[in-house]
Design brief:
The protein is of the alpha/beta class. It is built from five helices and eight strands; from the N terminus they run αβαββββαβαββα. α3 crosses α4 and α4 crosses α5.
């Protein structure tokens, strides 16, 4: 977390978006301000106690494992419009929300997610990051709504 704090202090991102329960829990425990957090109350697909993070708004969304539903895209767009912090509580699985966050977050935002058994990844959003994510989205099944 000290490295993440350094990145936040240097880059001063307009938004910090945390995807995943462990990431959200660690960010909260280290008092790093998060603007949007996406959780499903699971770590490695095992139920956990809900992450204790204060949020002005909680949005609930259904998103089955291995998918990105149109509802997922809508919920994230709504989260971007709300007074921060916003908690997006996913019934199903939140893992692929990283793609949604990168596709939709404003430039210079920081999307933070966990790489299981590896650690934390912090991605700064720019045109190139969006391009790479769009290639992944284009390769997915047609049920995925494309970023607009």
């Amino acid at each position: 977390m000290p490295k993440l704090r350094l990145i936040v202090n240097e880059q001063k991102p307009p938004l910090i978006i945390a995807v995943g329960d462990m990431v959200s829990k660690n960010i909260a425990e280290h008092h790093i301000p998060v603007h949007i957090l996406v959780i499903d109350n699971k770590i490695l697909r095992e139920d956990i106690e809900p992450v204790q993070v204060e949020a002005k708004t909680t949005l609930q969304v259904n998103n089955p494992a291995g998918t990105l539903t149109p509802e997922a895209w809508t919920a994230f767009r709504e989260a971007l419009k709300k007074t921060k912090p916003v908690k997006v509580l996913v019934e199903g699985e939140e893992d692929l929300f990283t793609l949604v966050a990168v596709a939709l977050a404003p430039d210079k935002s920081l999307v933070v997610y966990g790489q299981p058994n590896q650690g934390l990844v912090a991605a700064t959003i720019d045109k190139e990051a969006r391009r790479k994510v769009q290639l992944i989205l284009d390769a997915m099944q047609p049920a995925v709504e494309k970023a607009k």
